[in-house]
Amino acid sequence: LRDSGSLAAVLGLSVLVSAGLLAAWRTWPLWNDVERLDGSLAQHWQALAGRDLTAWRGLGVAALVIALSALVVLPAWPGLLPDSARWPAALAVVLLSPLLHLLLQRVAPAPLVSLRSSPLAASSGDHEPMFPAAAETVPLEAMAPQELTPALYEAARQGRIERGLQLLQAGADPYALPDPNWRDQRSLAVLAAVLPDLRLLRELIARGVDVNAPHRGMTPLLAATRDSWHGRPEAVMTLLANGADSRATDSDGNTPLHHAARSSDPGVAALLRDAAAEVDALNRDGWSPLAVACQVGNWRLARFLLERGARSEPAEGTPVLLAAAATEDDDPAGVQLLLKHKARADARDRQRRSALHEAALAGHVEIIGVLLGAGANLEARDALGRTPWLEAARAGRAAVVEHLLPHKPDLVAVDGEGRNAVQLAAMAEDVSPLLIKRLVELGIAADAADPVGRRAVDYAAEAGRWAIVALLDPSYPLPAAVSDGLAERGEAASASGLLPDRPPLTLLREALGFGNTEGMAALARLCQPEELGGLLLDPELALEPRAVDWLLVHGADPYVRDACADTPMFALLSRGIDAVPALQVMLQRGLSPAGRGGLARFLAACAQHDQAARGLEQLALELLERGADPFAASPAG
Q1: pTM of the complete model beyond 0.70
Q2: Is residue 494 predicted with pLDDT exceeding 90?
């Protein structure tokens, strides 16, 4: 063979025959079962996992299969047999095939594999079965009829499909709604619709459960489309095939297609569209499924919806371009996609806001560039009279401000309330002093007052942004805690933004805690009466008569309520002897102790102290004279 050059071919043929023999041996029960038993080839193939494939008689079956295959191949192999032998070989195939088939069917079938543990493992008892999935289903324990439905709900929540099916067979009510006292108010059909295994859902449908019956605004189809980012096409297909309404809405007006718009798989959206789901349906916010897809940056699904007729400006709805411009990331792909499908760059929503407003507010420089290139109006005003330039200032977007400058926006524009860019920036929650400085350098008036007479420095002081205050008005009187820090750091501290941002209420609380009221009136004017009243509820300040008197003089609201719905007066009444000085101050300021159980609170708190005094009796009498209720009990009874 080596001299003739056919060694490699013979070796290759040997390997091929050996591989075929081994493959036929590993599947030898298949050749018996297909002929003897009912079922498809796929079912018999899956059943191989439970059969013994190592029996030696399987090698004989494999040899018979290979021999029969060889008889078929020999006559057809070119050049392998002489022409005179081809017809005898074909005759041999015809005659020997029934004989080989008969021999194959006479072989005993393969036994089932036993999954029982070995005697050693059975005697151990400390180890769990190696194949728990193959263990027999645990029989259902005996339970009262009224316990079946709660157990069915619990099994559905835990994803225990077999137990759920057993409970249904035992008589659990598939139509029962969840108990109103349960925290999880999802119905059985909704719970089954979000499980990976759909057998429980199919069983509920087979028992006549209405797949369109909503509970707490949720149907099974809404749940199946909402609760998975990857989508549940099998569950959606099952529900739609059994009559689920593709146009049902939840409490927010979202249809299944709205929820599917967030999915990474357009297959669910395709199923819903095939089931006549409305492609431009609007939720309560006026958003279509296309707008939802753009809101989350799901451009793949956005393209899918656009190709199937979704409109970029649905009637009575929010233009989709606004959602694409307000995404979390500065990704212009969605805006470019919508513009390619003829979306108007200057489309407005109900508040007269454009995509340029949204992009400026979000700080998306790349998206702004695309919109301006498409002809968006830089001077468009929304319902509050704000332009994109003012929106960028209001959000403290320094990068957007610099990006808009070459396009020559109206720098001195004011909104509908008369506030310019500096005032709006001073009101922003997170703004850099450098942005304020830049706006002032552009010539925007820093000392301009709005119609209620407030300047940018006043808004900054209310928010406790003292670095901005010092930048806008160096003569503005700073609180002592801030000015002392400024003196320690040097005058450059204010320009560099090193002054701490501390709200006036925090500074005021600290000063009153130290007994310092000098110069605090200016801070009190920066706080709302409700905020000052909240200091009267402070556990420490409330016991300081001087602090209580000062707060009441400077406009604190004495009728604010704490977490227990108590006013400052009633909170002090519950503290007994310790609160007597502060209570006397409140009475001197004309506050009334009238209310249910106030006097009883005070007496109960005083009774818990070892010491009693004549002054307590006098205070109790004064409380009665001022209108305290002598009959109502305290909260403790």
Answers
A1: no
A2: no
